[in-house]
């Protein structure tokens, strides 16, 4: 029998900690499987059949564990925890969530018990309790033991969470090991685990940007990006990569912003931008530097712990670096640079006068050159407001907030949604404020949806004249808007002024905007309901969803919008738009055909459509696309 298979060398009562060290010690090359070493033979499988609701399970865990964790004798308490968690039959991941929320009578006693469980625990459930307690109570001496347990299958997530406040790189390496999906990431994990700087640099540079989304902080921490920049002070390739990683940490397109959780963010910005003048004068580098400037000016990076004048000094560096033309850039990139080139360098008031009212600046920003994502940013006294309060999504689009007097203040209080989570409001919430006029002041108050870990801000009382002037300025200012977006806005205005254009064809407007991944195309989306009110067998109204796509052809947006409105007025849009999804029964009755007639596809499309209608905004691209026009 080989040493690798000689598990009998450990007695059945061996702790999981010792088992992990043993398995690692017998590996010829010391490598850990991406899913971790298996638990010992005979270890009971995890129970996934618990049917308790969260509140009921939490009550059960609280009643079982809280009295035991107050016991000053860690050995006795740990033995009791082993017996109790075996009867709870709660999955380990869920158990962790309950344990971290326990109200502890004696944290010192709980810490001693947690350490005994981590060092000596023989079941995954008991060890999970110990590590979950160390998420709150861990100290530097616990790091080696947590790293050892993180090598075991099913324990890495909890070990990583406990390591997060103690050793960011170790925590990031555990997360990275569990997400290994490509050769470059495996190479990074191997290099960073062994501490080879050059190998780590090479592996990090080889990871494509498409992998960054939502994982940039983990990659930066796993690779020790700060240390790499310190050891490569004249490496423009590393500097550019660092800025791309920092930029992704700032974004909130499909994940919460992470830049405020990245400990060395300020020195990494400083080191990377010290090499700004060494970057090759390529359009993509100019766009990268301008995007960085936008993050430092009005994005979440502005909220980092900057020393006096240091953020402003970096913006000065960036202003010099992005000056000049955008020769060689694509038309879209050149237009994006032109529209944003001045915004982050405008000298606006950075603080209110002592005892005076706060200042407000509203700034629409297209955050990504390659998409139609535009967010509305608010600066109060020169600092961004929304990232300080809500980190699950960016500010709403200007069409939602600015158009049609969305920010104007009247005598009656009015609640306004400033931001919504990147997933949905029903999932991770939204941020609201109530706006009202009070004499010579405009008041923002009644905050709702502020992140749970943050205190709601005080009421902001803006000078009404200055507030009105800023709102009127941003309503007039379309410098952020590109031609296709301008066309979409003009069509929206025309349909609001002439609602009968769609009504006569039995259509309801869903949205008019630009295609998310093709910003040069305006897209009008509308719904056709069965005229007789027919319903399917599930009692849902029969409906069809159409898209009308209007690529930018170089003509003025005013002409494009006028021509589109005229065409809608003269002919039924369902005759020239594309059928996207809806009822196959209604489609067949009207002479349309589906790419496949499967009921499963129709139900999936219906579910997506119902979600769109319920959410009211954020329409994803259709899963399939084909022309459904009748012959002729």
Description:
This protein is of the alpha+beta class and 632 residues long. The protein is 45% helix and 12% strand. The protein contains 27 helices and eleven strands. The strands form three sheets. A four-stranded antiparallel beta sheet has the order 4-5-6-7. Strands 8-9-10-11 form a four-stranded antiparallel beta sheet. It has a three-stranded antiparallel beta sheet with strand order 1-2-3, with helices on both faces. Strand 5 and strand 6 form a beta hairpin. Helix 6 (124-137) runs parallel beside helix 8.
Layout: helices, strands, pairs:
Elements: H1 16-25, H2 54-69, H3 74-88, H4 92-99, H5 107-120, H6 124-137, H7 143-149, H8 156-163, H9 168-178, H10 183-194, H11 197-205, H12 216-223, H13 225-231, H14 236-250, H15 265-273, H16 283-298, H17 310-322, H18 331-340, E1 360-366, E2 374-380, E3 383-384, H19 386-389, H20 398-401, E4 414-420, H21 425-428, E5 430-438, E6 441-448, E7 460-463, H22 464-476, H23 483-497, H24 500-503, E8 507-514, E9 521-529, E10 543-551, H25 557-570, E11 578-582, H26 584-589, H27 599-615
Antiparallel strand pairs: 1-2, 2-3, 4-5, 5-6, 6-7, 8-9, 9-10, 10-11
